[in-house]
Amino acid sequence: MGPASASLNALFDALLYPLGGLPAFWGLLLVSLLSGIGMIAVFKAVSDQERIADLRRRMGGEILGILLHVSSPGTVLRFAGRLIRSNTVYLSCLLKPLLVMALPFMLVWGQLEARYGAEGMEEQVPVTVTVQFRDELPAREDMLVQLTGAGLVPPLVMVQALDQVSFRVVAESRADAELLVNGTAAGIGRTGEWNGSRVLRGFDAAPSLWRLFTPHVQVVRRVSGGPDSGWYSLEGRDYSIFGWHWSWTAVFLVFSMLSALAGARFLRVRI
Amino acid sequence: MNRRDFLKLAAISPAALVALKTGCARSTTPARRVIVLGIDGMDPFLVRGFINEGVMPNAARLMAAGGGINRLGTSNPPQSPVAWSNFITGYGPDVHGIFDFIHRDPETRIPYLSTSRVLEPERVLSLGDWRLPLTGAKVELLRKGEPFWTSLTDQGIPVSMIKLPVDFPPDRGRARILSGLGTPDLRGSQGSFTFFTDDARSITDDTSGGIVVPVRDYGDGCYECPVKGPQNSMRAGNPQMEITARVWVDREADALRIDLQGESTVLARGEWSGWLRLAFDAIPHISSVHGIVRFYVKEVSPRLKLYMTPINIDPLNPALPISNPPDLSSDLARHLGAFYTQGFPEDTKALSRGILDDEEYLQQAWIVLEERLGLFHNELNRFREGLLFFYFSSLDLNIHMFYRSLDPGSPLHASTDPRFKGAVRELYRQMDLVIGQALDARDGFTEVIVMSDHGFAPFNRSFNLNTWLAVNGYACIASQMDRERDMFAAVDWGSTAAYGLGLNGLYLNRRGREIDGPVAPEQVPDLLDRLKRELESVTDPASGRRVINNAFITSRILPGPLPPYAPDMIIGYARGYRASWETTLGSYPEEVLTDNLDPWSGTHCIDPSAVPCTFLSTVRPVIDDPDLKDMGRSIAGLFDVPVLPQGGRDVFREDGS
């Protein structure tokens, strides 16, 4: 899983790096607009446009039939039945492009969540780190926590019942920090100085396929005696648009949808 | 326009635009700025003393600019809600309707907060256990009268009133307002802490100021701590909403981890957490109420002692209106971080009840002050024009708690830790720094005013007004066993002529106004005269001193028509005395006068002439007896606007007009 995950991250790093000099909001906005156009282009390529146009015409006719025969319940019911059937066929026509787009969409979603969904470490603001051990916790004197680029704020709280250890770290600067817990190395916070770089909010030494969709969790090498996973309490990020505060998901959904609609009109795509 | 004019205009316009854009343009009438620091409880006698000691050099600068420390008449009674309402409206309680911190329903005598109330939705759709409001619930400000700044905003003067007292919910005009004193916590109280512990000695039924929640470790080092939120008005019976904090203790490390709604926080013993956000689901996934809390770890081992602040309304997502415009609080929170939104942020009750000790209380008070200073700096930096009023609560609440450190006459003076005997001086020094920052922000068009709402006096002896009334035959105790219970549980109302409630209020038990009230209207004047005479002659057997300077008959000092909830008398205690806490809640202890052994050792709820306000200004006042009621008009008068607020006088003009 590690190489696949790393390749995917490298690909998105390369794609988004040119936007890294822009403020995060503008980067996200451009990505959202491009994603909308991309989605509509894929939709056009893989959908049966003629059939969709035909079905839409037919459904229009059936709605008109209902409106024209409101005084005749039998006719209305007949048209309604046809409308439901046409609708079902229409939805089945959409299924193929949706299935084709699902995987890339989930990958893009995960990457954007990792890159635009959270703030990195703020200078002098403590972040709580919790690490999970698979079996029982090591003895306190055997716990070795080292940090690069950040400082450890004692104490280490050992939660025996959950096999977890929690502690606080404070960044020395806004740059990325490295954590080493009993031999397991993981990053915390931003992986690069540029906007759009990943913000690491945890690590996993026993990853599953799911980790391809959660790039904010770093896939790390498992070390004997080291923790299995960990997570950090980093603040979510919001974006100010005309005094309103939006989450990255709201920015992405609204602007990708707007650009998809505009793209559909421009590229004459039937949706 | 000919070609030459056009070319001239074209040459000038870009320069004008640039000037406007960079803020260099100056209108023909220069914008005047007025900075008003409302420092609750700043005492003119202490200010003079600290200036003389060199603790307040900036106040001395201001004093030199404005002709000394002026004493400002306070309200009667000199309680903050009354006093700030006088300031806001320019009128007394007969107009703004605030007579005390608490009023009572005249019929049932049930007390309620005087400044605001929540109105339930008028129409509700019941679906099984659910109650879906069809009209909105409302919070109503009970203070009446027009605020003085309305005349300023109507004339185009920008106004910012930050942490403004007695304005919750905030006035929906054109002023920027962040509500201060009077803003409740999320549970609707004026601040109710929670203390989680497994120490049996700390567990009591006392709910004043907060609750102690017994918790238990079942051997896995985990305490399940129920965090009780506000009532859920969308469920039948309005049950309290609740979430659970899991607290994992590590006794060896003397630390713990708090898991709360998916977030973990690590704290060692003696540490305060930052603000943690909570969400209580009124309707799961549809409607939630947001709050913020801080935790303090008093002890981990051998017993868990974990303090949680009152649940403050989250300024990022306020459940109740706390600012105008509504997004002001969230903008401030995004810029500066979360902050205390409750009106009484310093947790004096936790100190009074021994949940926090002096040191811990001062740490909490310092957190409040730092937040407030952050807000102040932010406002000062963005202030370009108009009126900026900024309110500080720190002096008032902390001097209430630490007057004992100043006053050798306090029963607690000797037992107060010497480390904290400089607490009051340090607070005044901090306020002086604030004054200095305001003075440094001055230019040729800026005036600075520092004012308080009352001064301060020691509170060494408690007067049980209700007990005195019972001893002197004005109240009849029906049940001796219930004397100590609140809300007049011991009283036979049919034979009781008068009762005390609140800090200064005395009420007659009038026929036709109170249920079972025996006092006929024709008996009222004589009864009031007799009470006044007898109350003013009460002396303290321990010292022979008079306990009450003035017992004011309300209808004689306030000329306007009085509402039925107004007290019939306002008791003006002598310096050193105040109504006991038992009096404020309607109980009847055995003794009439007792030593005050509560850390709440300073007061201002006494005779108003004994606790005047502080008034320092860069403009020299020319009226000899300025009063709080004059300040709104005087501030407005500094702006050269044609229309001034109606209430009060202009203290900066000879004729007061």
Short description:
With 271 residues, chain A is α+β, with helices and mostly antiparallel strands. Helices cover 45% and strands 23% of the residues of chain A. Chain B contains 16 helices and 33 strands.
SSE order and pairing:
The complex is a heterodimer of chains A (271) and B (657).
Chain A lengths: L1 H15 L7 H23 L2 H20 L4 H44 L9 E7 L12 E4 L1 E10 L4 E8 L5 E5 L2 E7 L8 E2 L1 E3 L12 E3 L9 E4 L5 E4 L2 E4 H19 L5
Parallel strand pairs in A: 8-9
Antiparallel strand pairs in A: 1-4, 1-10, 2-5, 3-4, 5-6, 6-7, 8-10, 11-12
Chain B lengths: L2 H19 L11 E7 L4 H10 L3 H10 L3 E3 L7 H10 L3 H4 L5 E3 L6 E3 L2 E4 L4 E4 L2 E4 L4 E4 L7 H6 L4 E6 L11 E4 L13 E5 L12 E5 L7 E10 L8 E11 L4 E6 L2 E6 L7 E8 L3 E7 L1 E5 L5 E4 L3 E2 L9 E2 L3 H9 L11 H5 L5 H25 L3 E7 L1 H13 L16 H18 L5 E6 L5 E7 L1 H7 L26 E4 L3 E4 L15 H13 L11 E6 H4 L11 E5 L2 E4 L1 H5 L7 E3 L6 E2 L9 E5 L13 H7 L20
Parallel strand pairs in B: 1-23, 1-24, 9-10, 9-23, 11-12, 25-30
Antiparallel strand pairs in B: 2-33, 3-4, 5-8, 6-7, 10-22, 11-20, 13-14, 14-15, 15-16, 17-18, 18-21, 19-20, 24-33, 25-31, 25-32, 26-27, 27-29, 28-29
